[in-house]
Amino acid sequence: MTFTVARVYDPPADDGGARVLVDRLWPRGLAKADAHVDLWLKEVAPSNELRKEFHHDPDLFPEFTRRYRAELDANPAVDRLRELEREHGTVTLLYGAKDTEHNQAVVLRDYLTGG
Predict the structure, then answer these.
(1) What is the strand order of the sheet 18-21 is part of?
(2) Which of 42, 43, 39 is CA-nearest to residue 16?
(3) Which residue range forms the structural domain that includes residue 65?
(4) Could you please report the per-residue DSSP string of 37-61?
(5) Burial of 80 (0-12, 13-18, 19+ CB in 10 A)
(6) How many C-alpha atoms does 2 have within 13 Å on its Cβ side?
(7) Distance, CA of 35 to CA of 79 (rounded, Å)
(8) What is the pTM of this model?
């Protein structure tokens, strides 16, 4: 059982399990029919306030990580992701950001896996 991360714009992997979009906003320029998303769980995304403050600035990532993890501690949507992992074995957390290292899906994956 595992959680992985991938850009929503990339083609789905054959062994990606359940594909869950974890962005609060739908990715720009991507038609829902072309997204290959099993579930859009925007409730697990960072709050609008935190998302706007971070604005994908790598220098702010440590503080973003700390605050987002605190939000996740009180977020019942985390339980839904754990249920999906039990059902599918693998859950791919999808995000739209260009930065593959500094985004909420990476923080969420690490949170879910105890990292």
Answers:
(1) 2-7, 90-95, 18-21, 39-40
(2) 39
(3) 2-113
(4) -SEE-GGGSPPHHHHHHHTT-GGGH
(5) middle
(6) 5
(7) 24
(8) 0.94
Which run of H or E residues covers position 107? helix 104-112
Residue 97 three-state SS: coil
Distance CA 105, CA 95 (A): 6
pLDDT digits (tens, 9 = 90+) for 34-86: 889 999 999 999 999 999 999 889 999 999 999 999 999 999 999 999 999 99
- How many structural domains does the chain have? 1
Give 59-93 as a 3 state SS string.
HHHHHHHHHHHHHHHCCCHHHHHHHHHHHHCEEEE
Dist CA 85 CA 90 (whole Å): 6
Residue written as tokens 């403050």?
Answer: 53
